[in-house]
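**Sequence with structure:**
===
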Amino acid sequence: MSRCQAYGTCADEAPDVFTLDEWGYAQAVEDELPPEQEAAVRRAAAACPAHAIALQE
């Protein structure tokens, strides 16, 4: 089950990391987070109204 509710804020905050499918649901572009994108992904996680993004240390 996906927590994503298709708000699209992740793609707004980190467009190089997240894409939206035809229904507006997010997908990560890569399996591994590029280090230079960490700040953008943290902003995306904080901005997600559904709290669907979890960062693992």
Observations:
- Strands lie at 18-20, 26-28.
